[in-house]
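Risk register update: the risk that structure generation would not scale has been downgraded. Supporting records follow, first protein first.
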Amino acid sequence: ELLMSAGYVVLAVDSFSQRGVYRTVDDQTRVSGAAMVLDAYAARDILAADPRVDPERIAVLGYSKGGIAALYSAFERVRAAAGAAPFAAHVAHYPWCGMRLLDPKTTGAPILLQIGDSDSVTPLAFCETLIEEVEAIDSNADVTVVVYPGARHAFDHPALSVLGWVPISGMIPGDCLIQEQADGRFVEVTTGMISTGENLGEVLTACGRSAAEAGGDAEAAQSARQRLLEFLDDTIGG
């Protein structure tokens, strides 16, 4: 509603129900991050074919697990592997930033990352380190990170602004850090486990948390929405 009221065409991508999934908190492998990235690219193709839409001004926006797709689709290596056209801009709200690629060059499209510094589900520190690595090797990277002091995971969720904070239990990535090696393997650094598509649930269970919390912050939520609109106006508006 916010985006449409600002004049944007919006396509909401449902990566869950069409796969028979309602939620992934207790099992993150029910829908993989890779599948959601591909869903995002497919959605871009649908929008690009719509005569109401300028194909050169399509952005992707995601929250939490969806934020992973919104963020990692900005990496050129991921885009090339998918054989997809690039997005014009990326907005990721509190994504898990614990997957590190050897070549994290971006497509050059602007990226806005918004997250709270009290997020126990997808820690801020991992995102800060990831962006530092990106900017160290990619002179074309255009990344803006906005940190909200005291804000928890899902700080802008409308219901949580009323409820306050709520406990979360399940398969929470938390402090998991999966690093690509020179030989192509992906290794979780705290456990030494090799991560594959088949054993990701086992890896996340071993390195992650079983409990965390989410919490609303009305002031931070309002600021995040305003920054979102300003970012989109600057990148794809006009």
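Supporting record for the second protein:
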Amino acid sequence: MMAGISAAEARATVLLCERQEKPGRKLSATGGGHCNITNTLDAESFMSRFGKHGRFMTDALRRFSRDDLLQHMREWGVPCEADDGFHYFPISQKATDVLDALERRLHAGNAVIRNRLEVTSLEIADGHIRGVRTSKGSMPANAVVVAAGGAAWPALGGCRLGYELAKQAGHAVTDVCPALVGLATRETWPGYCSGVTMPDVTVRIDLPKLHRSVTRGTLLFTHGGVSGPAILDLSGQVTDLLRANASVPITLNLKPGTSHDSWRATIDSWRTKRGKKTIRNLLDEFLPQSLATAICDACGIGQDAQAGHLTAHVRETLAEWMTDMPLTVTGSEGFEQAMVTRGGVALRDVNPSSLESRLVRGLYFAGEVLDLDGPCGGYNLQWAFSSGSLAGSSAALHQR
């Protein structure tokens, strides 16, 4: 939609081919229906959160920055604020307001939206795009922007069409896996804590050379494992590792501000000063009851075990669990529940200054279909807006 707006504003003739009954269904659902469109990070910090390929975004972010996005939203009647100092949401807290504004801008630029029109292949001749073949016949065009998203969230339109179109043009597509997705664990005890939320947890991949892969934020225990922002931000890397490994070990620190030694000292003081209290009741002072119970079970501590009777070995095990709680990830909730796709059209054959294919003139890519994905917090939507703006304006120039 942003590519269409940008191209229309550059006076190009625009046809938006939408395979669903209407565009923007994913957008309507983002941020729990509130639409966290961007965040307060500067461009360098923003790009760093996308990993080793992040600097590919430089020209797109320069062409359409966060400030440009916020200004456009104001002008389009959807002012946004970052009430928490980081995440920008529409003041109305309605993702549908953002979607409606995009549709209005498309219509204002005389762009044509054709719903239930699926592109089936690209039409290419002599290294130039000539149009697309659709479910309703051929559509000639001097420029085509592939902004088909990724495989995530198929109930809201996620599909692999963009990858297939890219392959038709000779582009390599890296392996894709779900990202920003809940993880399933071998351990069953998280299910007994289902629905419990910990507001501030750090999560680490417990593998050699990956100890720096740490995220911090809210964690949610689910029926089958763990979710929440702290997990979602690490999930793409974990699901990528699961392609070559049957399982991936992770650890949780339930109270990041408290070290192992501090927990050991606290637990030792329970033994000497509060020896008749049960460990479960003492843990209840720090943790939800169901989680305290699960930790006691996992550490072999009976529900009626008193602090004064704990052996040194059990006290050490409990301190370790509070700072490095081990979990074994065996899978994820899959593309069906994923918010984003990791992987996609390889960046090496896409020109970052225009997002034009280096293999086929007049072919452009934007958004999630490319091999770039970021964490929770407005990263992926900002990339969608910025890349859409650059690809659309570049395509309009090519059309001339």
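The two ends are 20 Å apart (CA to CA). On this basis the risk owner (M.S.) recommends closing the item.
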